[in-house]
Amino acid sequence: MNAAVKRLDVICIGRVAVDLYAQQIGSRLEDVASFAKYLGGSSGNVAFGTAIQGLKSAMLARVGDEHNGRFLRETLNRAGVDTEYLITDKSRLTALVMLGIKDQETFPLIFYRDNCADMALTPDDISEEYIASSRALAVTGTHLSHANTRAAVLKALEYARRHGLRTALDIDYRPVLWGLTSLGDGETRFIESGPVTSQLQEVLHLFNLVVGTEEEFHIAGGSTDTLTALKNVRNATKATLVCKRGPMGCVVLEGDIPDSWDQVPLQQGVRVEVLNVLGAGDAFMSGLLRGWLNDEGWEQACRYANACGALVVSRHGCAPAMPTKVELDDYLQRAESVPRPDVDERLNHLHRVTSRRQQWPELCIFAFDHRKQLADLARETGRDEACIPQLKLLLLAAAEAAAQEAGLDQRSGILADGTYGQRALNAITGKGWWIGRPIELPSSRPLRLEHGNIGSQLIDWPLEHVVKCLVFYHPDDPAALRAEQDALLLEVWQACNKSGHELLLEVILPENGPDKDERHYHTMLEHFYQLGIKPDWWKLPPLSSASWQQITALIEREDPWSRGILILGLDAPSDKLRAGFAEAAAHPMIKGFAVGRTIFGQPSRRWMQGELSDEALIEEVKRNYLTLIGYWREARR
């Protein structure tokens, strides 16, 4: 296949697994109580890392026909990785790794890889046409350790050389995966082994690029003296050798190996506070491949690689810690002014906003997160509050019916609470809807959280749930009131940054306030940005087009990565919302609406009074929701 029409930049072949990272930093693995689940495996990480660096990458491996296999496939797909040849193995389970972070030098890990899916790769899984569709093939050393996977790798390399692909090897030496340690000793990084050295040296000539740490070159070169090992590797291959030298950086060796390190230019590393070295090599490889495959020269490729590795060691996990292209480029453009990238506020914000799981170009959200209003309605109609959870399930059914009828693919959402709406939340989670949940105590001013500390709440929330926080605010509030509300909003914002949940900040002028000039909304948003709060979403009442112009300009200046604005309803009549939608239509930053009582208010009252059956309630609410969807689409035409 001609290089000009190749659709892939790099195919990664090797380990892909689920990583379970201990959340209690400093604990022995025996004492860890909870774990975070991430994409893992060296090749899986590199496929992910190169994709978010802008390359068209692919994963060639096997995963199990179960939840973990689907998790890996979905995670890779979201990053843009081609998974056409990520084969589902119906006879084996997906590989698993448990990892701990004891201190800066101790990282216990256990590989669960007995008869796992990715080690069942065979030559029959390798398609010549697929290999030929790429510019490069990247292999990790573990797949050279077993006969079947070794044969598969050699077949892929044969096709790669036949079709002119660049070939790269990350030595990726794990003694336990070569059978050199006890099964539970995944932490040991180096054990001398003549057979392993021989098996590696047999294939080194098949690669254009070989990458490893000093210890990994020790095993490839059969010597614990690094320069001697590199000379032995050079005798086996003409490949460019990139040797990682820890925090110092790396060296690139294209010809003869010198007798002294003084004769080798060092590509300087990036200084950071180390949290976790696991996965740093995969991030390094991702950055290096970006520069190498884009022909940017070794100096630039190593800048990418060193920075990627440094950023990952300062964060929890590997794949989710890897920088995106936007994030990495921003850092490298101002590297001299960022002595500690791991604590740089701008860089960490870029990581958060450019790593989002799903894009939402437009949203028509049905909000039924109301608690106090429905409890009051139940009392007014003589019903027990126990009926409210059932009502919310019926409202969800109406939302789903309307979304299907309106064709709201990837544009539908709900706001629902955990107090009365937990069953509805459970039912819709995982279906691809936008889902928001309130945390504020209804009607509280100053702001209070309904269920106490925000950090402890978010531990139990699915990551796809958006934190919605409503604050009644006025720029002329007493200083003490503003300070109290500001402090809690900052706490909420910081908790969302820590947990990875998105934040929707809903701002409403107090209902009983004497001054409701809509120009205050610009002032309030500007104030929140000055505090350092950058919510993913804003939720605001309908405003004039002139006010929207000012507010959207403010958001674009302060946080161009903002998800945007959603228009709230405040129980307004549908014709008033229609006019509000028309005022908003010309402003792309406004992504849609999140409206509730206008849709469900009267039908819910009649249902509680016994005037509507469940089916009639669903039908009436569906019609009201469809009406607003129609008004929004009408405005946006």
Description:
There is one protein chain. By secondary structure, the protein is α/β, with parallel strands linked by helices. Helix content is 40%, strand content 17%. It is built from 21 helices and 21 strands. The strands form 3 sheets. The protein has a 9-stranded mixed beta sheet, with helices on both faces. Helix 13 crosses helix 21. The mean pLDDT is 94. Residues 327-635 form the DUF2090 domain. Residues 9-324 form the Carbohydrate kinase PfkB domain. It holds the Pfam family DUF2090. GO terms for molecular function: 5-dehydro-2-deoxygluconokinase activity; ATP binding.
CA gyration radius, whole angstroms: 28 Å
Which regions are unreliable across 5 or more consecutive residues at pLDDT < 50?
none
Structural class: alpha/beta
* Strand line-up in the sheet with most strands: 5-4-1-8-9-10-11-12-13
- End-to-end Cα distance, whole Å, is 44 Å
**Please, what is the average pLDDT?**
94
Sheet having the most strands = 9 strands, mixed
Number of helices: 21
Anisotropy-based shape? elongated
Strand content: 15-25%
Fold blueprint:
Layout: E1 10-13, E2 17-22, E3 35-40, H1 42-52, E4 57-64, H2 67-79, E5 86-89, E6 95-99, E7 109-112, H3 128-132, E8 136-140, H4 147-162, E9 166-170, H5 194-201, E10 209-213, H6 214-221, H7 226-236, E11 240-244, E12 249-253, E13 266-268, H8 280-293, H9 298-313, H10 325-333, H11 345-354, E14 363-367, H12 372-380, H13 388-406, E15 412-415, H14 422-428, E16 434-438, H15 454-458, E17 465-472, H16 479-499, E18 503-508, H17 520-531, E19 537-540, H18 545-558, E20 564-568, H19 574-584, E21 590-595, H20 597-608, H21 614-636
Parallel strand pairs: 1-4, 1-8, 2-6, 4-5, 8-9, 9-10, 10-11, 14-15, 14-21, 15-16, 16-17, 17-18, 18-19, 19-20, 20-21
Antiparallel strand pairs: 2-3, 6-7, 11-12, 12-13
